[in-house]
Design goal:
By secondary structure, the chain is α+β, with helices and mostly antiparallel strands. The protein is built from one helix and five strands; from the N terminus they run βββαββ. It has one domain. The two termini are 24 Å apart.
Length: 62
C-alpha cells in the first residue's frame, strides 16, 4: 500500500481501490491501484487475520 494514500470506496459500484507502490527489490518502479469488490476485501481481511493470529501455547503462527 502507498504510505501517503488511503483506500477509496466507490459507493455506486462497491469497488474499493487500494493505491500501491511497485518495487523491484528496493527500487521503486511506479504506482498502480488494486481494485477489489467488497466481497474480495472481506475475504482478504479474513485471510490476513488468520495469517497473523497467534496459535498454540508459544504464540506460533500457523
Amino acid at each position: 500500500m502507498s504510505r501517503d494514500a488511503e483506500p477509496a470506496v466507490d459507493h455506486d459500484t462497491g469497488e474499493i481501490r487500494v493505491p500501491l507502490e511497485l518495487y523491484d527489490v528496493d527500487v521503486r518502479k511506479g504506482d498502480t491501484e488494486l481494485v477489489l469488490s467488497r466481497r474480495d476485501v472481506r475475504t482478504l481481511a479474513k485471510a490476513f487475520a488468520r495469517a497473523v493470529a497467534p496459535t498454540g501455547a508459544e504464540g506460533e503462527r500457523g
